[in-house]
Amino acid sequence: MGSLADLILALSSDTPAIVASEYPLASFKGINADGLDPLKLAALHSVFTAEDFNSLLEHYKPIAESSSSGPWLIKFPDELIKVLAELAPHDHASIAAKWASTDPLQEEGWSEQDAEQFLDRIAYYAQTAFFEDKNLFLWIYG
What we know:
alpha+beta, 5-stranded antiparallel sheet, Hypothetical protein yfbM fold
């Protein structure tokens, strides 16, 4: 299913500690999110905003890295956190279906069920980030 990744809930000021850690989930709240990558996040973002996928990619570049060969830290844009935090649970299936139909997910064979499982987890952490005034990060390590 693609990349090895973790979803991390933290403050922006925690960026150096995340990058310095060999296993950020030991110190920060989050979950394993293997398969999630910046292309898939940009595709999800475009489902909500109807913005051009390619123009959204600019928001999904690493903000920090351990080395040039990784791991890399990507910060979720505030706009994506907000729309995910406000997403009603009964809308997850329809958004997941749209997300599953995007090229980045289709290229890796994601089903609507795969997309919905990821969306459920991402939305939960987005709600937490929104209400705790924190950020969501994607830590890609493989």
